[in-house]
Amino acid sequence: MRGDPESEAQLAEDRRKLQLVSALRELRENAGLTHAELAKRAGTTAAVIAKLEDPDDDSHSLEKLERIVSALGMQLEIKIVKKHARKNGVLV
Length: 92
What we know:
Blueprint: H1 5-30, H2 35-42, H3 46-52, H4 62-71, E1 86-87, E2 90-91
Antiparallel strand pairs: 1-2
């Protein structure tokens, strides 16, 4: 429901997850790797890679993500930023 803080928070979380899994899939595909090939480089299984690329899967872990990103020759960076305050639905 629009305007419901809990629903909006869930929607924002879903968007972040979709961005992350989309970025992982794009990096893998741009590297020309299959799930199995990336899994071998990362020391895991093709099933784990597929699950990490599934936005509906909730078993993602930071350790797994770091291994996968490293296997793609990249570095995972996480930023903590201050949330923008909202007043009556407007950023302040």
